């Protein structure tokens, strides 16, 4: 959509809404409201049925039974034969969250188990080759961990890879003979050794 189309759209919308003096302020508030909604446009545009008045709900404060709260909500909304989209829109009013800080806290608390934990480069020194693990599997596991370790330079990774090999392994001796190898060279030597 080009700038002219947007301008026409805005002008038509303003004419249709018959907005008075505070034209720009009203439009800005409406745009901000539309952009700040957490709902999809289908939910945002859901219209309540005729004679719908929002029932009085008990706000969910976070320390009562959530299933009981949902049952209460659904039992009140079923009287209005409310569609799913309208129920989503109205349900937000039953939550007692007073700030973004509070919402952020509850959101992160609820989904903290899915959080990606940033690993430090020294984590690679804990990836020792297991006695029953093949050299190829160890290389795959090490490379995967190295990839997930943002900010780890190749010199640290190279040192960790060598250090995590068993001392009695022939590859360990071969890699420690030339200690200034790059990570790419270490992997190339290891790959050829694995073959």
List the helices and strands and how they pair.
Layout: H1 3-17, H2 23-36, H3 41-44, H4 66-77, H5 84-91, H6 100-110, H7 135-147, H8 154-163, H9 170-177, H10 183-194
Provide the descriptors you would attach to this structure in a database record:
10 helices, mainly alpha, 0% strand, Non-ribosomal Peptide Synthetase Peptidyl Carrier Protein, Chain A, 55% helix, 195 residues
What this model shows, in words?
The chain has 195 residues and is an all-alpha fold. It folds into 2 domains: 35-115, no CATH class; 121-194, Orthogonal Bundle (Non-ribosomal Peptide Synthetase Peptidyl Carrier Protein, Chain A). The protein is built from 10 helices and no strands. The longest helix is centred in the first third of the chain and has 15 residues, at 3-17. The radius of gyration is 30 Å and the shape is elongated. The model has no long low-confidence stretch (mean pLDDT 77).
N→C terminal distance = 57 Å
Give the tally of structural domains. 2
Structural class: mainly alpha
Classify the helix fraction into a percent range: 40-55%
What would a concise description of this structure say?
This protein is mostly helical. Helix content is 55%, strand content 0%.
């Amino acid at each position: 959509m080009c700038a002219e189309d947007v301008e026409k759209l805005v002008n038509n919308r303003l004419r249709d809404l018959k907005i008075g003096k505070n034209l720009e302020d009203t439009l800005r508030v409406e745009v901000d409201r539309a952009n700040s909604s957490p709902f999809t446009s289908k939910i945002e545009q859901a219209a309540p049925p005729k004679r719908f008045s929002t029932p009085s709900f008990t706000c969910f404060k976070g320390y009562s039974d959530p299933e009981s709260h949902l049952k209460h909500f659904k039992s009140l909304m079923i009287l209005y034969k409310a569609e799913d989209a309208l129920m989503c829109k109205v349900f937000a009013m039953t939550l007692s969250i007073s700030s973004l800080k509070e919402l952020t806290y509850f959101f992160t608390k609820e989904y903290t188990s899915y959080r990606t934990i940033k690993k430090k480069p020294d984590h690679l020194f804990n990836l020792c080759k297991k006695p029953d693990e093949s050299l190829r599997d160890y290389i795959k596991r090490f490379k995967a961990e190295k990839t997930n370790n943002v900010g780890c330079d190749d010199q640290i990774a190279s040192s960790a890879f060598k250090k995590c090999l068993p001392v009695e392994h022939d590859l360990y001796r071969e890699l420690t003979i030339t200690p200034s190898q790059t990570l790419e060279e270490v992997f190339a030597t290891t790959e050829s050794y694995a073959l």
